[in-house]
Design brief:
By secondary structure, the protein is an alpha+beta fold. It is built from ten helices and twelve strands.
Length: 461
């Protein structure tokens, strides 16, 4: 993906423009400074040489001036006290030189220097006063030197400086480009990931490890996607449970009236019968009808969201009632149901709701058991947590550990609606209890442990 024009241009272009301007100004300053230094060095050397000649009291004839000029690579001119040439190493008539000589202060007692242009060249003019033995000014000695070689050297150095500056600019442009891309590329990855998440791919991640701020943003984006995925899954589960609850409510409502009519007819038939064997069979059927009514009633309460009403009660007594009701049909299927009642402190329970949970657990266990199967129920007092715990174990194939069984699943049993765990979870939540599903050590199947608050712990709290 190409870098973002806004961010990339905002970083790259201003920096490069500022650097180009700064480089051009630095190049111009360095060029001028170097040329000025060379000219000053040449003028100082020429001035020292002219001063030595002026103090040597040599005859300033044209021939002498010509020879000395060749040695100094300059033109030497002798001036009278009025500043007019009286002798020179060669004929000269340049107007610019004449104007430069005319501007010399003839009363000055020190060496003067200046520059002038002539024939498209720059010249340096050095004028040193001449004195006789009486220390009277008798004229001056002028030296004119071309600065074209210095300018050529200065241009050569300026060219090299320009080439070096261009190389530095190229390297710096590459560095700035890498820095800008180092910012825009992770941002582009974040944008791509955000688009993927927006399109529904909540598993999309951005592989960004630097800079640190963008890496933190990428991590936060990934966390957000995972949380959105979890919320979506939770919403789907809740929608399924809502639809399942509506279906359960309709089914339970349709079953209630026929069950009531069947129960009424069985009760009338029980009153008419005199044979004890027949009355026992009808009584068993009525017990099953009571169980069906409890299941239907519990399903309706769960679907409608009816609130449980926990109060101090005897959990052992509730379990005993369910065991007595479930033992005959289970025995008929070849399944043993074991429960040893023991004295326990009161627990905070809604008896009918706990019966419904226990019915669900026993039915779930019975559905996976064959002949000679075994179900064991026990109640214990967990003093360290202030809870009364109910454990249901079976000898079936078992199921994976799910901890507190907080995720209710739709059943895959052929005739099941899969509401058992969902209903049980809702009931336990209303009791402020917990459910733990593990593998049974003693029977080898599934072990479900329910813990409910003891009445004493609630009072103490």
């Amino acid at each position: 993906m190409r870098p973002s024009n806004g961010i990339y241009s905002g970083i790259f272009l201003p920096f490069m423009v500022i650097f180009l301007i700064a480089t051009a100004m630095a190049w111009q300053f360095a060029h001028s400074l170097f040329e000025r230094q060379l000219i000053e060095l040449r003028e100082r050397q020429l001035g020292d040489a002219v001063k030595v000649l002026a103090e040597a009291n040599l005859p300033l004839t044209p021939e002498m001036l010509r020879r000395m000029g060749r040695m100094l690579d300059s033109r030497l001119i002798a001036l009278d006290p009025g500043g007019r040439p009286v002798a020179s190493d060669q004929a000269w008539s340049e107007r610019n030189l004449a104007r430069a000589l005319a501007s010399v202060n003839n009363e000055a007692r020190t060496t003067e220097s200046s520059t002038f242009d002539a024939a498209d060249q720059l010249f340096s003019l050095i004028v040193t006063p001449l004195y006789d033995t009486a220390d009277e000014r008798v004229g001056a000695l002028a030296a004119v030197a071309s600065l074209s070689d210095i300018r050529a050297a200065s241009r050569n150095i300026a060219l090299r400086l320009a080439i070096g500056a261009l190389l530095v600019i190229a390297v710096l442009a590459w560095v700035v480009h890498r820095i800008a891309r180092g910012i825009t590329r992770p941002i582009a990855q974040l944008v791509t990931t955000a688009h993927a998440i927006a399109s529904g791919d909540l598993g999309a991640t951005a592989d960004v490890d630097r800079p640190r701020e963008l890496a933190v943003l990428a991590t936060a984006l990934g966390d957000m996607a995972r949380q959105l995925d979890a919320h979506r899954r939770q919403a789907e589960r809740e929608n399924r449970l809502t639809a399942l609850g509506e279906l359960a409510a309709r089914v339970a409502h349709e079953l209630r009236n026929p069950l009531t009519a069947i129960k009424l007819q069985l009760q009338i038939q029980l009153e008419r019968l005199r044979d004890d064997a027949e009355r026992e069979r009808i009584a068993r059927v009525l017990e099953e009808m009571r169980r069906l009514e409890l299941i239907v009633s519990g399903t309706l309460m769960w679907a409608k969201g009816s609130r449980a009403e926990p109060r101090p009660g005897d959990l052992t007594g509730v379990v005993s009632e369910v065991v007595e009701l479930m033992r005959p049909p289970l025995r008929h299927r070849g399944i043993s149901l074991h429960f040893e009642a023991m004295s326990l402190p009161p627990a905070i329970i809604d008896g009918d709701r706990i019966k419904q949970v226990l019915f669900n657990l026993i039915n779930n266990a019975a559905d996976v058991l064959s002949d000679d199967g075994e179900i064991a129920i026990s109640c214990t007092h967990a003093e360290e947590t202030g809870s009364i715990c109910l454990t249901v174990e079976d000898s079936g194939p078992g199921m994976p550990d799910t901890g507190d069984a907080s995720r209710a699943q739709v059943s895959d049993k052929p005739l099941g609606l899969g509401m058992g765990l969902a209903i049980s979870r809702e009931i336990l939540a209303a009791h402020r209890g917990s459910m733990e599903i593990t593998r049974s050590v003693s029977l080898g199947g599934t072990r479900v442990r329910l813990c409910l608050p003891a009445a004493a712990s609630v009072v103490d709290g």
